[in-house]
Design goal:
Blueprint (H helix, E strand, L loop, with lengths): L1 H39 L10 H8 L7 H28 L2 H26 L9
Length: 130
């Protein structure tokens, strides 16, 4: 009985995902058809539909925030260091509890620096005036 319920939930989830993917694909097709119709009429499609692609097409990319880039790279480096320490302590010393404590702690510090870099990149006050 439990297996039947589990199977029904899994199959229902797969069907739901398939329906959602089909709906998203249909919306994308309609958006493309709308853009093609605008272009055929000689009109420029509005940039609000996809502002990132429009800015990249025009050539006005978003300025790079150097502080955010440093935080992200430092965060990735510290996370790698924590993973390396975890593997070293776990396999060489054979103490998984200490490995999770020390390596995991360093990974969390690196993740915090990485998240700080992601949040700093979105702050408009840090972007240079152009």
């Amino acid at each position: 009985m439990i297996m039947a319920v589990f199977l029904a939930v899994v199959l229902g989830g797969m069907v739901l995902i398939a329906i959602m993917l089909r709906g998203r694909q249909r919306l994308r097709e309609l958006a493309i058809q709308q853009r093609i119709a605008l272009i055929e009429k000689g009109l420029a499609p509005s940039p609000e539909a996809d502002p990132v692609r429009f800015e990249a097409f025009v050539g006005h990319g978003r300025p790079v925030n150097r502080t955010a880039a440093r935080y992200r790279s430092a965060g990735l480096f510290i996370m790698g260091l924590g993973c390396a320490l975890f593997l070293l302590l776990c396999f060489a010393a054979g103490i998984p509890q200490v490995a999770f404590g020390l390596g995991g702690g360093i990974v969390v510090i690196g993740a915090a620096a990485f998240i700080n870099g992601r949040m700093t990149a979105d702050d408009p006050a840090d972007l240079p005036n152009t």
